[in-house]
Amino acid sequence: MKLSTLRYTLINITYFMAFCTVHAYAAVYLLDRGFTNTQIGVLLAVANIMSALAQPMVASLIDRQGFFTNRNVMIICAGIIAAGSALLLVADTSKILVFIVFALIYMIQFTYMPVMTALNFEYQNHGINIIYGLARGLGSAGFAITSALVGRIVEREGVRILLYLNIVIMAVQMVIVYFFKLPKDAVTGDSKSASGESIREGETGNLAKGSEASSLTAFLGKYPAFMLMLAGTVLIFFTHNMLNDYLIQIVRPLGGSEKHLGYATFIAAFLELPTMAAMTLFSKKLSMRVMLVISGIAFTLKALVMTLATNIPMVYISQSMQLLAYAVFIPASAYYVSQNISETDQVKGQAFVTSCFTLSGVFSSLLCGVILDHMGVKAMLVIGSIVSVAGAALLTRAMMSTRR
Fold first, then answer.
1. Distance from C-alpha of 291 to C-alpha of 282, rounded to nearest angstrom
2. Tell me: the pLDDT tens digits for 27-39?
């Protein structure tokens, strides 16, 4: 278990290190390449829409079995990000080329996030115990530390250093994922999951006899409570993305600067670690339904505190609620899918959750910018809080309709 958890942790750390260099510093890189804020918004919206569409399609490929296993898809995605970064290093003078390649990199990285989650449960089902919460929490810690360090490096070396970092980090991840294989004795015979249910055999994930993966349309009608949960997730993460994307506009009227933005981001990311690491212990006391309701309430309280903030310390208090909001939702939603979605639909289930993140990012980036320009920061925060309350209500209703 220790070795498997270590390997899966390294996969998470490298993923979120690159997530930081690509996503957290997207505006920094694109502004340096001559993009306007409007053009950046369009690029990110397009990339998010492409990702939301691609995730279920990639999941369907994996669920059909064959060459496109979780491992192989992750290696391919990491290779595309590394290759795209290398292309930008030698040909980044054309804004059209930068737009296309960077949008592809941004989209691909979101696309294989649910695949990485599904990889954990695939291995768990074959008797390979992994402490998912610890691995995911250390991934967030890797993001936090990278965010703190890369800013200084970029100031000293320029934005092109981000592309070199992408290449190195993705190359390391490809090696780690390649050697993260199921032992031969874990893929032969009639494997059983921890709950005693039959699971798929072989690393390629061949379906257990008599089971079939649902089509996308069949999937939508098969899990009504899950669909309601997804609707609540879109609304909750609309506000979550709003706070992340426009945090600098929020702190400046309170007397803050980029320095305070960095502190606030670090607090939120670093506090994800203890909760995610302890998720296994929490799961013994509370069901995933209860954990998700708690996270929905915490997301809403975070938005409300930010709306009422009159100084920077209140911003930090709002960010500290990440401890029970995002830090609970991410592992709890993954376990919820594992427990309530049939094994043959697992990757699609994880992909739909991540698609909600990207869809909410599209709505947030496009709508909140307009609200800011025409109504101001306070109006944006009030609207975001109302949307979060509605999302938490839908999430709670969905959990009330779920057995476990």
1. 9
2. 778 878 888 767 7
